[in-house]
């Protein structure tokens, strides 16, 4: 990305009042360091069910069948955004 493009995008992000300060910071960090690993987003079963428009027991079955990838966080299983969005295509 050229310096001019970075300047234009940065200006647009800073000027947009609909973007939260936290999200602006994340976006600007990515522009300055695109090689950084993106923050992994994780979902509960209930959140995943809302995204896919299915029931919580269906999400539990999808996890058990290996259709949804999970990560353990302090003993609690969370569904990765990557696997969730792959199912919604």
Task: Give a nutshell description of this structure.
With 89 residues, the chain is of the alpha+beta class. It is built from 5 helices and 3 strands, in the order ααβααββα. The chain has 2 domains: 3-32; 42-87.
What attributes characterize this protein structure?
alpha+beta; 89 residues; three-stranded antiparallel sheet
Describe the structure.
The protein is of the alpha+beta class. The chain folds into 2 domains: about 5-30; about 40-85. About 55% of the residues lie in helices and about 10% in strands. It has 5 helices and 3 strands; from the N terminus they run ααβααββα. A 3-stranded antiparallel sheet has the order 1-3-2. α1 runs antiparallel to α2 (about 20-30) and α3 crosses α4. The chain starts with a helix and ends with a helix.
SSE layout:
Elements: H1 3-15, H2 21-32, E1 42-43, H3 45-52, H4 56-64, E2 70-73, E3 76-80, H5 81-87
Antiparallel strand pairs: 1-3, 2-3
Residues in helix, % = 55-70%
What letter string, H or E per element, gives the SSE order? HHEHHEEH
**How many individual β-strands?**
3
Kindly, what is the distance between the CA atoms of the first and last residues, rounded to a whole number of angstroms? 29 Å
| Largest beta-sheet characterization | 3 strands, antiparallel
Number of separate domains: 2
Radius of gyration using CA atoms only:
17 Å
Structural category is alpha+beta
Number of helices: 5
Q: What is the approximate shape?
A: elongated
Strand order of the largest sheet: 1-3-2
* % residues in beta strands: 5-15%
Low-confidence stretches: none
Q: What is the arithmetic mean of pLDDT? A: 86
